[in-house]
Amino acid sequence: MKPHIGNLIANELEEVPGSVRLSTRLGVFEGKLYRGWLTLLAEEGESLDMEATFFLSPEWRGSNFLGYQGALERIRFAVDPRANLFYFGDTG
Q1: DSSP string, 19-74
Q2: Which residues of the chain, if any, have pLDDT below 50?
Q3: Closest CA to 56 of 37, 17, 29
Q4: What are the residues whose beta carbons fall under 8 Å from the beta carbon of 36, sequence distance 6 or more?
Q5: Which of 36, 45, 70, 86 is the most exposed place for a label (fewest CB within 10 A)?
Q6: With contact defined as beta carbons under 8 Å apart, do 50 and 38 qualify?
Q7: What's this model's pTM, rounded to 2 decimal places?
């Protein structure tokens, strides 16, 4: 993620105190956690607004991704890899 984009995102979110280390297939990265709202836009049906935890690191050079802990664990979802579709809905 480009630093200016991370700064724009951080300014809109609530910082969680302390720093964390995230171990990924690209290595270990130091960063901070932030809490805020995320909207999953639907091509069909209703979009979903949900609270999520974001990890921001100035060292991160990979693409953006949705993680299970802090985001996907809060919703019902299914993936259809043949059709390249992601289905989601509220847990309520």
Answers
A1: EEEEEETTEEEEEEEEEEEEEE--SSS--EEEEEEEEE-TT--S-----TTTTGGG
A2: none
A3: 29
A4: 12, 13, 14, 51, 52, 54
A5: 45
A6: yes
A7: 0.77
